[in-house]
TrEMBL record:
Alphabetized Pfam families for the sequence: DUF6541
Keywords: Membrane, Transmembrane, Transmembrane helix
Species name: Arthrobacter humicola
Taxonomic placement: Bacteria, Bacillati, Actinomycetota, Actinomycetes, Micrococcales
InterPro entries hit by this protein: DUF6541 (IPR046671)
Name by which UniProt lists this protein: Uncharacterized protein
Length: 693
């Protein structure tokens, strides 16, 4: 399969991510950017919540269920809006009310000025914003195509064993619930919560398109990175910059020019659930800013303002809990700014005497809830084991220069970011976003540049004390300021050129014509200079992006020495479906990649993740299968597990460790098995012992 052949599937994935949620945002009265940017997070939330609910109704997981959920929710919300409008305007005709509900409530997704002049200046700015989105999405798609190499390549990393097998498990069981997917690896123990929103979406895309799991995973990640992330960045920038089309369009292009996201989480880990959660965060954070009315020159009507955060938050938590916790941390400045504004408005408080008391009580309750959530929604200490990677000074430089995780300094976006920070500080009203930038920066400095200790764990344990996870958050708060920097520079340059044109004397008609020509020339000069500077900024990002792409690319290469599945091992896996009957299971050492036979060849394996909790029967096989011809306990374990084959992928482990599985090793001199297939150092054996049991 070529990348060109995947284009229809990419469009399907984008439509799948936008359509159910888009119906909901439109039914709430949102239009244009607001409707588009929130559509993806709403779809993800619908899918994640339905995945938990459907098993209780004995309904199997499918993309049709997600679409049906979106349609039903949109119809419900539209009905509520319709009857609310009927009550507010009882004298209006039924037709007029229906038309108003269908067109959206003014000023949904617009500023008051936009509502008064809905057509003013829109066509040109809309074309620019749309073109910028297409350009940003295309850049991201190109970057990821280079990273993945081929549509069916997969990440040769530790966590991908679980992720790919998790998708297969959902397809086999018809259950994508975050409450039960861990049953795949829990052995004899009860299942536990695991955020499975990403896995459910990937499984739905396999069902929708018929693609192999590996290709569907790549297509899904490309669609999320090139659609959900840029639209969210544009929406967040709109709340920070106000009605500034240049800034909003610049945000789309800049979304492709930060090395820490989306590339880093598709490289390290690989952390697909975190990747999905952070892709949602810009739009979700914008909805919180609109909820508390701290957005610049933008307001939503009450219904979408209060409804959308409630709709999206469950999906964010089910995408990954630390995405939800990241939102809580970044929402603190929003809440405080809204409270400070209320406290300073003496006239409003005089008219509504109980408001400040209620707001103070709410603020106190929120602080208690934040403390309880912060101390409880975090991984166990033994999972948050990551060490600091540099000095505090180096970590501060990473934040300022957008050079996190040993990447070259991103000079272009960093200069624009600093300009935007200064402009927002001078302009006022964006304190919440400046504080959010400081929060992410401080958290990164703490996790990356300070010694292990209680304070470090208290602050960053939510993110496993991992520099990579927090580095991926840095573009979220840096990008809007870089976009403001672009807009501010464009305004300054245009004014300078206009002044130069206006300074020329116009004493005669011919001189006036020359002045008109000079004005036209200044516009041409403005466009040319902006184009050159845009190319310069993109060029300045090349070292940083080349390093990020090169690092990620290494993890998707299949070679003779790949850490998870080598070329020889892949050849064995490709032939499993023609050798191993469907009902038979394969004994594997997951550390050497054998567990991926479940995802890639659709054959049952004794382990589906490297950290699988084994059943008692599997433990017996791992210790003693090679002696099945003499040990009756092994025969009983073979019968209990259905194991009839063994994959031996040698001793090379994904993390260069040494985890012995004595029952599955040195099978060349075992009388319990026979060699069926060999490719290089990879072997497939059939268990010949215990056939009579």
């Amino acid at each position: 399969m070529t990348w060109f052949q995947t284009l229809p599937y990419l469009l399907e994935a984008a439509l799948f991510l936008l359509l159910p949620g888009g119906l909901v945002t439109l039914s709430l009265g949102l239009r244009r950017l607001s409707a588009a940017a929130l559509a993806g997070p709403v779809t993800i939330s619908i899918a994640a919540v339905l995945a938990v609910v459907l098993p209780f109704a004995h309904i199997p997981w499918s993309p049709a269920a997600v679409l049906a959920g979106g349609i039903l929710l949109a119809a419900l919300l539209f009905g509520i809006r319709f009857f609310a409008l009927r009550r507010l305007h009882p004298g209006r005709s039924l037709r007029h009310t229906l038309t108003t509900a269908s067109l959206g409530a003014c000023p949904a997704g617009t500023s008051p000025a936009d509502a008064q002049h809905p057509k003013a200046g829109r066509p040109r700015s809309d074309v620019w914003v749309a073109a910028a989105f297409v350009a940003g999405a295309a850049l991201i798609l190109l970057e990821l195509a280079v990273v993945f190499g081929t549509p069916e390549s997969f990440s040769q990393t530790f966590d991908n064993v679980f992720h790919l097998n998790g998708v297969r498990y959902i397809l086999d069981t018809g259950n994508a619930s975050s409450l039960s997917m861990s049953k795949m690896t829990s052995g004899d123990a009860a299942p536990y919560f695991y955020p499975a929103a990403w896995h459910g979406l990937a499984a739905a895309l396999v069902q929708l398109t018929g693609l192999p799991i590996t290709a569907a995973v790549n297509v899904l990640n490309m669609a999320v990175a090139a659609v959900v992330w840029p639209l969210g960045c544009m929406m967040l920038t709109r709340t920070v910059a106000g009605n500034r089309p240049v800034a909003v369009g610049a945000a789309a292009i800049l979304s492709a020019l930060f090395a820490p996201f989306p590339l880093l989480l598709l490289d390290f880990g690989v952390l697909y659930p975190n990747f999905l959660a952070i892709s949602m965060l810009p739009a979700v954070l914008a909805s919180i800013a609109l909820l508390f009315r701290v957005a610049r020159d933008l307001q939503w009507p009450p219904m979408p303002r209060f409804t959308l955060p409630l709709l999206i938050l469950p999906g964010l938590a089910l995408a990954h809990p630390n995405g939800f916790m990241s939102l809580l941390a970044l929402s603190v400045p929003i809440v405080l700014q809204a409270y400070a504004r209320l406290a300073a408005d003496h006239g409003y408080r005089a008219r509504h005497r109980n408001v400040r008391l209620l707001a103070s009580l709410g603020l106190g309750a929120g602080a208690v809830a934040l403390y309880l959530l912060w101390t409880n929604i975090r991984p166990p200490e033994d999972a948050a084991f990551w060490e600091p990677v540099q000095t505090p000074r180096g970590a501060v430089w990473d934040v300022v220069a957008n050079a996190a995780i040993d990447r070259p300094a991103a000079i272009g976006v960093s200069v624009l970011m600093l300009i935007g920070l200064y402009v927002c500080w001078r302009r006022g009203g964006g304190t919440w976003m400046i504080a959010a930038f400081v929060i992410t920066g401080v958290l990164y400095v703490v996790v990356s540049g300070t010694l292990k200790g209680d304070l470090r764990s208290a602050l960053t344990g939510v993110w496993y004390n991992d520099s990579n996870r927090l580095a991926a958050l840095l573009p979220l708060t840096a990008l809007p300021f870089a976009a403001v920097g672009v807009d501010s520079f464009a305004v300054w340059l245009r004014r300078r050129l206009d002044r130069l044109a206006a300074s020329r004397p116009a004493e005669t008609d011919s001189a006036a014509k020359e002045k008109t020509g000079a004005g036209r020339g200044s516009r041409i000069a403005f466009t040319a200079i902006c184009g050159v500077l845009a190319l310069a900024v993109v060029a300045s990002q090349v070292p940083s992006m080349r390093a990020a792409i090169g690092s990620a690319r290494m993890n998707y290469l299949e070679t003779d020495h790949s850490l998870l599945i080598s070329t020889d091992e892949q050849k064995i896996i490709d032939r499993l479906d023609g050798i191993v009957p469907e009902g038979d299971a394969i004994a594997v050492n997951p550390w050497t990649g054998g567990a991926l036979a479940y995802a890639l060849a659709h054959r049952e394996t004794t382990a589906k993740h490297i950290l699988t909790a084994n059943t008692a029967a599997v433990d017996i096989l791992n210790r003693n299968l090679r002696n099945a011809d003499t040990d009756p306990d092994v025969c009983a374990a073979l019968k209990a597990t259905g194991v009839r084959y063994v994959l031996d992928f040698g001793a090379n482990e994904v993390h260069f460790g040494d985890h012995p599985f004595p029952g599955l090793e040195n099978l060349n001199n075992s009388l319990a098995v026979r060699l069926v297939l060999a490719e290089g150092g990879a072997r497939l054996y059939e268990v010949t012992a215990c056939r009579g049991t």
